[in-house]
Design goal:
By secondary structure, this protein is mainly beta. The chain has one domain (9-14, 42-232). Helix content is 4%, strand content 39%. The protein has helices at residues 48-51, 120-124; strands spanning 9-11, 18-24, 29-35, 44-47, 74-78, 97-103, 111-117, 127-142, 156-158, 168-169, 172-173, 176-177, 183-188, 203-215, 225-232. Strands 4, 5, 6, 8, 9, 12 and 14 form a seven-stranded antiparallel beta sheet that branches. Strands 1-15-7-13 form a four-stranded mixed beta sheet, with no helix packed on it. Strands 2-3 form a two-stranded antiparallel ribbon. Strand 2 and strand 3 (29-35) form a beta hairpin. The protein is globular, with a radius of gyration of 19 Å. The two termini are 39 Å apart.
Length: 233
């Protein structure tokens, strides 16, 4: 069983987006609102820690969710490569990990994703800076091993760890969520359709792949809280 020093708090939210059109007449404006999908919901957002479906959850050398171990008046990195055993399973090691897994089901368009840092004020008491590299991976295959038409842990194949579809340019991370910016936004193109008929899925995962921080008080709030918003682009 994977161990964690602390669990990243995640608040899940998937925006149900409506198509809106305006038709102008003399002095008045008529608005027609239509929904997309059942009750307007076009995707399902799953917590990276509890779903067990993300790319890091299916890779044994990593923790499921991001963890790190700050010390007062010291810098730290995520991941930390100076561990003695060469993997990321030790609860004294730092590790990248999954934040959210999103299933677009049958929706084939692009989506606008905004990831918010939900407790920056609390974190400023613990860190002078906390820079987290945010990336996106897409599921490329689904092996329904038990033939139950349900996506279970270890059944999804993801893009290679370290080569995500978003968040890295020319080998370097290019999207950081920090105490200063408070949120990041990006467009995700529709992932590969997996399954058939009523059991179709299009998965992508939002992950924390790397980071650096300086801790000024290890007794203050150390765990970031996140909030995600997914809209049709």
């Amino acid at each position: 069983m994977k161990k964690r020093l602390f669990t990243v708090v995640a608040l899940l939210a998937a925006a149900a987006v409506s198509g809106i059109s305006f038709a102008a007449t003399t002095g008045t404006t008529a608005t027609s609102i239509t929904t997309v999908g059942p009750a307007g919901v076009f995707c399902e957002v799953k917590d990276g820690a509890t779903s067990g479906l993300g790319p890091y959850a299916t890779a044994d050398e990593y923790q499921t969710t991001p963890i790190w171990h700050p010390s007062t008046n010291a810098t730290g990195e995520i991941p930390y490569d100076g561990n003695s055993d060469g993997d990321y399973l030790d609860d004294q090691d730092n590790s990248p990990g999954d934040l959210y897994v999103v299933d677009l089901t049958t929706y084939t368009g692009d989506v606008l994703v905004t990831l918010y840092l939900n407790n920056p004020v609390d974190l400023t008491a613990a860190y002078s800076y906390l820079n987290m590299a945010i990336c996106v991976y897409k599921a490329t295959a689904w092996n329904d091993a038990d033939l139950n038409n349900t996506v279970d842990p270890d059944e999804l194949t993801w893009e290679t760890i370290g080569s995500p579809s978003y968040g890295v340019s020319n080998g370097a991370y290019d999207t950081y969520l920090t105490l200063t910016n408070g949120y990041v936004s990006f467009v995700v193109t529709s992932p590969t359709e997996l399954g058939t008929g009523d059991y179709r899925h299009r998965f992508f995962a939002v992950t924390l792949d790397a980071g650096i921080f300086y801790c000024i008080d290890a007794t203050a709030t150390l765990s970031p809280a996140f909030y995600i918003d997914v809209r049709q682009a």
